[in-house]
Amino acid sequence: MATLPKKESRAPNTCLGLDTNYGDGLEREHSRKPDHKRPEHYGVGDPTTPFSSDGSHLSSRGRISKWFWDLAEEGYRTYHMDEYDEDKNPNLSQSDMLQVKPSLLQYPDWRGHLFLREEVARFLSFYCRSPAPLKPENVVVLNGCASLFSALATVLCEVGEAFLIPAPYYGAITQHVYLYGNVQLVCVYLDSEVTGLDTRPFQLTVEKLEVALQGANAEGVKVKGLILINPQNPLGDIYSPGELREYLEFAKRHELHVVVDEVYMLSVFEESLGYHSVLSLERLPDPQRTHVMWATSKDFGMSGLRFGTLYTENRDVATAVASLCRYHGLSGLVQHQVAQLLQDRDWINQVYLPENHARLKAAHAYVSGELRALGIPFLSRGAGFFIWVDLRKYLPKATFEEERLLWRRFLDKKVLLSFGKAFECKEPGWFRLVFSDKAHRLRLGMQRIRKVLTGTLRVAEDPPSSRTQEPRGQHI
Amino acid sequence: MSRNRDPRSGQPRKAKTKSQNVSHQSDTLHSPHPRVMEVILHLRQIINEFILQLESRHEQEDLEQEEQQHRQNIRNQEAILIHLMCEVVNLLHSGASSSLELQLPRLSLVSKGGAGSGQQAQSSREPDQLSHQLSDSKTAFISCYLSNRGIDFSALYQSNLQDFIAYKGDKYHEDKNTLGFINFGLSENKHCIDLLTERLSQSDMNYIDDDLLQYPDWKGHAFLREEVARFLTYYCKAPDLLDPGNVVVLNSSLSVFLTLTMVLCDPGDAFLIPTPLYSGFTLTSHLYSKVELIHIHLQSKMDTQTFQLIMDKLEKALLEAKFKGEKVRGLVLCNPNNSLGNIDTLDSLKEYLEFAKRHNLHVIIDETYMLSEFRASIPFHSVLNMKSLPDPNRTHVIWGTSKSFGISGFCFGTLYTHNKEVVSAVGAFGFLHGIAGLTQHKLCRLLQDGEWIDNVYLPTNRSRMQVAHRYITNKLKTMKVRFLSRGSGLYIWVNLKEYLDPCTFEEEQLFYRRFLDNKLLLAPGKAYMCKEPGWFRLTFTDKPFRLKVAMQRFSEALTHKKQNWIEKQLENALVESVSSPSTRRSSSSSSSSSSPSSSLSFSSSSFVNVDTSHF
Fold it and tell me: Which residues form a coiled coil (chain A) (predicted)?
C-alpha cells in the first residue's frame, strides 16, 4: 500500500482535528498546529496535492500515477510473504482445469461468463450461509478487488465525493478509489485506548461514524458511502452480526452505500469467533445500497489469478460496474479455472480449509508466543494473516518519523513489517506483522525482530544523527 | 435532436459547446440553467413563425408545388417545436432532480420528431455526437443509486450492448438454432479459433508455479515482456532488438489506450483522431479518462484516395482546434485501420509522425490488427519498422492478441514505448488491468512458438480470410453493392447509401434495425463516427456456413428494402394521381427527378468498386 506523499507533511492541514470538546472553528484552527496533540476523530484525505513533476511528458494525473509506481518499485519485493503460502496452492494443474473451448477465447459477457457467475452465487450462498440462495444475476466478475473498488467508487460517487472508512485500514484502497474515480476517503479514526462503552481497542462504533460523517459534512465533503473490511485488515478483527447491523442501520439512516470487503472471509482460523458475512443477515437494512466483494487473492492465496467478484442486489450498480468491465476483464480460461476451483467443494472443505486454518493457527500461535516472550503487546483475534503489533514503547518520540526510522531498521535487518502510517493509523508505533509464512522463515523473522528491538532500546536512549532519510515503501 | 443546433441557421454548433452542454447538465445543477432562457426565446420565435405559416396557407393553396413546399415547412417547424419543448423539459428536469432527488422520466424524441421531416431536421442529425446518444439513452436509464457518471456509463452500456446481449442469448447454430442471430458487426476473427483452441490445449500451456499465482510485476511478468519484445522485433521487422523495459502488458488493447490517455492528458485535453474510428476509443475517452477526441472526418469522395488521411486535413484540424482553445496533446492512429481495413504506407506514416513532431504531439498508434493483412500486395508496416522514429519519446504503440490471433476472450494488450516515464505511469495502472499469471504463461508460450505461428497459424488464417473475403465480395458485387476493402483487418466497409431514403443517420439506424429483424447484426457507420450516413462495417471473418446464411439474410434485407421503396414510390404516385389527376404526368416525372433519393437507382451501373486500384 502507498500512502500519498503529502500526507506526512500536510497532516496538520488535511486531518482537521474536530475535537468533541472544542467544536468551534477557532479551536479547530488551533488544532491544525502540528504540536497540538489532540485526538482526531476523522480526517479527510486529499490525494490531489500537486506532485513533483519529474515526468515532463506526463499530464498531472500521469505524474500522480507515476508517483504511485515509483513508490511500488521501491518496496515491492518485500511483501510476498504477506500474500502467499506456497503449500496451499490449490490444484490448478488437475486435468479438469485445463479445458480450452472456443467460447472461452471469444468476447465474454462483460459481467463474466454465466457459468462462473452461477458458481460464484452457489459458492457464496454456501460459505456466507445466506438465508436464501444468492442469484447469479447479482454477480459481476472482475480482475481483482482493486478494480472493483475503482469501479464502485466511479459509479457511486461524483468526482471529489467521499467514502467513510474506519482507520487503520488496508491503505491501498486510497489509491484504488482515487486513480480513476477521484474519490476521497474520510477516515474514522479508531483508538487503541478502550474508552466509554468500548469493549476492545480500535472498536468501531456508530457514534464514531456519526462524528466523522458530521465532520465531513461540515467541511463540505459529500459522503456517499461507507467501506467496511470484514475480517478487518490490518486489525485481524471481525464484526459481530449485531455490530454489522448497527453500521448498516447507520448507513441506511444517512442513505449511504455500504461496500463490504470480505476478502478474508475464509481465513478466520479461530472457530470460536463465529464469523458472519453480511450476506448471512436475515434481512439487510438497505439491500439496494449494500455491495459485497470477495476474491481468491487471500482466501486461496492466489493474488496472481486476478479474480474478484461483486455481489449486489442493486441491478443499476451491477450494470454500471459491468459497463466498466471491458477495462477490468479476465481471461475466459481463468474464468473456467476459477469456476472449477469453486465447484470443488470436497477439496475445499476437506483438504484446503482445514489445512489452511491449521497452518494459520500454528503460525499465529508461534508468533504470538514470541511476542509475549518479548513483552510486546499486540492485537489479534484469529482472523486474517496478521498481527497488529504495538511497538510504541520502542519509539523515542511518538512521531511517524520515528515509526519510519524503526521500520527502516527492520528493513536493514532484512525483515519487513508494515508501519501503521501506511494504514492511516493515527497513533505512531503500530506495525502489521504478517504470519502466514513457513515456520523456518517465521523463526528467522522473529529472531531479526528481536535483534532490532533489543538494539532499539539502546538506540532510543542515544539517537543517531543521520535521520534525514525518508524511507518509503509499499505495504499491501 | 436539433438541440445543439441553431434551428434557424441550421448551423451545427461547435464541437466544444456540444460536450459542454452535456457536462453543464450535470455540473451546474444548482443554478438555473442559462440554456433554458435561450431555448424558451427560440421557442417563442418558432411558434410565431409557425402561426404565420399556418395563416399564409390560404393564399398559397392554388399551386401544387408550393403547397408541397408549404407542408414541408410546417412539418419542419413542428419538428423543431417538439425538439425545443423536449429540451426545455429536460433542462428543467435536470435542475429539479438535484434538489429534490426526484427522478422523472425525461422526454425523449425517439425517432418520431424528425422522421422524414425534411431537410432541416435531417441535416441536424450529426454523427459525432456521443452526447446525443447519451442524452437519448439516458431517458431509458435513471437511477437514484448511481452517480451521474454511473448513469452515463450504464446508459451507454445498455444502448450499445443491448443487441450484443440479444445476440449472445440467441446465437445462430447450424443444427440447434438455425434462426439465431449471426453477427456481422462484432469484431472477432472466428476463422482460426479451432487452431488456437488446439494450440492452447497442448501440454506446454499448463505449467503452474508459485510465481504465477502471486502478485506479478504490474507491468507484466518479465518473461512475458521479454517474449513480447522478441515477438514485436520479429513481426514488426524492427531494425534493432526491442527492449523488454519498454513493454507494459495489460488486459486488453483498449486498457492500454485508456491508461495512455489517462497519463498523457488531463481531463478536457484533446487528441486528434481520423474518423471513421474504432468506437471503443470514443467510449473509453468518455467513460474514464474524459479526454476529448477531435474528429478529422475522412470522406468517401476525395481527390486522391477514398477515406485517406492527408496532411492538409491534419494541419487544418490542429489549427482549428488550437483556435478554439483546445489543448491538443496528440494524435491517435489505427493501422491497419479498424472499420476501413486500410493500411498506411510507410511514407504516409512518416509524414504523420513528422507532423506530430513539428507540433510536439504524442502519437498513439494502435497496431492491434497487424498480422491480419491477407494480401501480399499491400504490405503492412509497423512504425517500429522505421529506421528511426521522428520523436521516439512521443510515439506509443499498442498491440494485442484479440485480432491478430482472434482470441478476444484472452484479454491481453501491450504497450511499446521508448518513453520510460510513460512506462512507469502506465505500469501504475497495472493493478487495475492485470492479467492472471497463468494467462501470462500461456501467452508467452503462444508468442514463443514462431514455428507454429509462421507455418501453421498465419498461412491458414490468411488463406481462410482470403476465401471468406472473396466469397463476400463476390456476393456483394452480384448484389451491386459498393464496398471498400483494402486487404487487411477483419472487415469490409459497405456502402448502402443507395438504400437510404432520405440518406440520413436515422434511416441508417432504421436499416440497421431491419437487418436485426433478419437476425443479422451489422455495425452502422455512425458507431464509428463516420460523417456520411449509409456505411456499414461487415465482419467477414466467420465460418463459411455462417457467412452463407448471413449473406442470404443480407440479401433478403436489401431486397425487402428495395421493394419497400418501389411500393412507396407507387403509393406516392397513386396518391398524387388521385388528388390531382390533371397534373398526373408532370408530377410523376418530377417526383422521380426531384426526390432526394434520385440516386436510388438500382441500375447495373451503380456498382462501382470505389477503390479499384487495390483489387
Answer: none
